[in-house]
């Protein structure tokens, strides 16, 4: 029924146009370029930015919509994946139906269109995760394993592209802020303190842990709070939040029935000559070597899966301690988006 509905909703000409634009090459945009270009958000620059996004977003969205039609194991036909595909087709249609951007009135109207697109795609990640769970439920595990590499590679590309699309839209929208905070250029903070971001992420993660378990282990942060570097605070917050959340859960569950107080989680922020390194370590028991190769896949989680196929994923972002199976791989993509990386080193029966 879902596939039939999609065919009836979207015209043949639109589908053909999506496939045409899906063949175009997208343009890479660096952090440095966004920072330099956005440092002077004049009307001229905002107009240039909107004209660039008018074409670039259509290409990026079309490429993902085409890929969503060609997934192995009939993943493309799962209800949740069809829902995501419809969001991408709707967004492509909204962009392509917007006429050429010639002046600032056009730019303002277009900015509202892409803001609405960003909101529409808020729940893409959990909805795709639901689609993967639907696949696991309906398909023989042996068949999934045969096509797993292809599914994983697609999801890496898909989620990385989503990060890029949201970064481009968010950066453009934020450049309209009449009174931006000091040292902030759109989404980018030119003097971001990783220690301060880590503190905020820890507070959020401990709050969720306390809500679920009734308590939360302490987290100690070591590093120079005055050290800063240019980065996207929202990206770093997400990565630290996910990693600390995993550590809190592991420690809390390991010491839940123990007479001993749970040991603190430690975060170390180090400024090197080439890299900024953030190390998060815990004593939550670690991961067996046989499980390490699975932790960055989208079909694996060490926790019970909280996804409910009957839940309305179109409203809000319900955050749980664990179970969706995408926290670590998504965090690694955020780290890699601007040239970094995320590595996990585990000591079984001790921690990470």
From TrEMBL:
Q: Does the keyword rRNA-binding apply?
A: no
- GO MF entries: ATP binding; pyruvate dehydrogenase (acetyl-transferring) kinase activity
Q: Which domain of life is it from?
A: Eukaryota
- Specify the enzyme's EC class, one word: transferase
Q: Which reaction does it catalyse?
A: L-seryl-[pyruvate dehydrogenase E1 alpha subunit] + ATP = O-phospho-L-seryl-[pyruvate dehydrogenase E1 alpha subunit] + ADP + H(+)
Which Pfam family is one of those matched by this entry? HATPase_c
Q: What is its main location?
A: mitochondrion
Q: Name one GO cellular component term.
A: mitochondrial matrix
Q: Which InterPro entries would you find in this protein's record?
A: AK/P_DHK_N_sf (IPR036784), BCDHK/PDK_N (IPR018955), BCKD/PDK (IPR039028), HATPase_C_sf (IPR036890), HATPase_dom (IPR003594), His_kinase_dom (IPR005467)
Which residues does the UniProt record annotate as the domain Histidine kinase?
236-352
* Cell compartment(s), UniProt: Mitochondrion matrix
Q: Which PROSITE patterns match?
A: HIS_KIN
Sorted alphabetically, which keywords does the UniProt record give?
Answer: ATP-binding, Kinase, Mitochondrion, Nucleotide-binding, Pyruvate, Transferase
Q: What's the EC number here? A: 2.7.11.-
Q: Does the keyword Transport apply?
A: no
Of which family is this protein a member? Belongs to the PDK/BCKDK protein kinase family.
Protein name from the UniProt record: Protein-serine/threonine kinase
């Amino acid at each position: 029924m879902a596939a039939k509905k999609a065919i009836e909703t979207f015209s043949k000409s639109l589908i053909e146009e999506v496939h045409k634009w899906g063949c175009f090459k997208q343009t890479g945009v660096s952090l440095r370029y966004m920072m330099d270009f956005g440092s002077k958000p004049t009307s001229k620059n905002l107009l240039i930015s909107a004209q660039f996004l008018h074409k670039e977003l259509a290409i990026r969205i079309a490429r993902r919509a085409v890929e969503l039609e060609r997934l192995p194991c009939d993943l493309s036909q799962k209800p949740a994946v069809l829902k995501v595909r419809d969001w991408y087709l709707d967004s492509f249609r909204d962009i392509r139906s917007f006429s050429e951007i010639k002046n600032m009135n056009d730019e303002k109207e277009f900015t509202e269109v892409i803001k609405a697109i960003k909101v529409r795609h808020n729940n893409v990640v959990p909805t795709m995760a639901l689609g993967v769970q639907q696949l696991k439920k309906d398909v023989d595990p042996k068949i999934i394993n045969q096509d797993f590499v292809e599914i994983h590679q697609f999801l890496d590309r898909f989620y990385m592209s989503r990060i890029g699309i949201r970064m481009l839209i968010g950066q453009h929208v934020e450049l309209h802020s009449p009174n931006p905070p000091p040292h902030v250029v759109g989404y980018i903070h030119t003097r971001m303190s990783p220690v301060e971001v880590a503190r905020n992420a820890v507070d959020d993660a401990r709050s969720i842990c306390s809500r679920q378990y009734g308590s939360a282990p302490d987290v100690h942060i070591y590093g120079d709070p005055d050290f800063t570097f240019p980065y996207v605070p929202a990206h770093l917050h997400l990565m630290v939040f996910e990693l600390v959340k995993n550590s809190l859960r592991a420690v809390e569950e390991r010491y839940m029935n123990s007479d001993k107080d749970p040991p603190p989680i430690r975060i170390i922020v180090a400024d090197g000559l080439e890299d900024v390194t953030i190390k998060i370590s815990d004593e939550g028991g670690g991961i067996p070597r046989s499980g390490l190769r699975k932790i960055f896949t989208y079909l694996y989680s060490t926790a019970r899966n909280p996804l409910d196929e009957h839940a309305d994923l179109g409203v809000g972002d319900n955050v749980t301690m664990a179970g969706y199976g995408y926290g670590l791989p998504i965090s690694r993509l955020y780290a890699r988006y601007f040239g970094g990386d995320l590595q996990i080193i585990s000591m079984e029966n001790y921690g990470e």
